[in-house]
Amino acid sequence: MCGCHPPTPDQIHSVAEVFQTQGKIEAIKFVRETFRLSLMESKEFVEQHVARSRPKQTGSRLRAASGDTPNSRISVPPHETSIERGTKNQPTRTWQPSRFLALQTLLWCTLATIMFATAYYTWSSQQQLIARSQMVIADVVSMRSTEGGAQRPVFEYQIHGKDYRWERSISSNPPRYSVGDSAELYVDPNTPTNVLVNDWLHRWFFIGITSFFGVAFSLAVFICMFMFTAFRTPKSRTPIAPTSNTSSAFLRVT
Fold it and tell me: Are 223 and 209 a contacting pair, CB within 8 Å?
């Protein structure tokens, strides 16, 4: 189609369908892309052959088609009114204790696992050292003072005909040992400086501390699990949209 030939009824019908469904602007684009016309020619084509020939419905016809009369009134359901206004029945974000308790449970469970693993690793390392070590009797030859007034002993022992000195890493106040005291040591023959003092402070103090925290964290895990079960929020249900029969019940004609 060009400017010298009038449009056919099929062409006008196709443009009219686009005009009715998508509007005037889309109809102009359709004419321009389909019939290779300029923007001005496409606009004139739509206004001349489509827009002017489109029947206009008056307000009375629209009211008659919809069944609305001046003496009729339609009451809209409350839930539809609130949705249109956008001010009521909107979902609000609330604090969910179940999610918070789940994170707390994971945290305490991780810490309890670390504490128990550390205690077991320390105990296992001591058992391996005792299995390959030689017990010797050592003498306390001096005391080293640390900050806060605590003191730690320096032991002297002999293994393979050689004298060794080893300073304990744990300090105490009052001191547990004095100069001239004796103590039992587990000494690794292959590494004479690898020493374990055979007393409860060296063997069980660190294991007891880590085990205590492991038990405390485990108790926190059980408390969080109990609270998680108590405060668990139920799954939200999807509201059912009202059917035509249900919505018609809200129509009231007076």
Answer: no
Torsional sign, CA 63, 65, 71, 72: negative
What does DSSP say about strands 162-167 and 151-159: parallel, antiparallel, or unpaired? Answer: antiparallel
Element (H, E) at 197: strand 195-197
**SS3 annotation, 82-130:** HHHHCCCCCCCCCCCHHHHHHHHHHHHHHHHHHHHHHHHHHHHHHHHHH
Please give the Cα distance from 46 to 20 (Å, whole number): 12
- For the question of whether the overall pTM of this predicted structure is more than 0.70, the answer is no
The pLDDT of residue 94 is 54
Distance in angstroms (rounded) separating the CA atoms of residues 34 and 92: 50
Displacement of CA 224 from its chain's centroid (Å): 18
Q: Report which residue type is found at 144.
A: R
For residues 160 and 189, is the Cβ–Cβ distance under 8 A? Answer: yes
Confirm if 151 and 164 have CB atoms less than 8 A apart. Answer: no
Paired residues of 35 in beta bridges: none
Whether residue 142 contacts residue 185, with contact meaning beta carbons closer than 8 Å, is answered with: no
C-alpha closest to that of 150 among 171, 170, 178: 171
What residues in the chain have per-residue pLDDT under 50? 56-76, 79-88, 243-254
Burial 190-229 (b: 16+ CB within 10 A, else e): eebeebbbebeebbeebbeebbebbeebbebbeebbebbe
SS3 188: coil
Q: Which of 199, 92, 219 is nearest to 138 (CA)?
A: 199
Q: H/E element holding 25?
A: helix 24-35
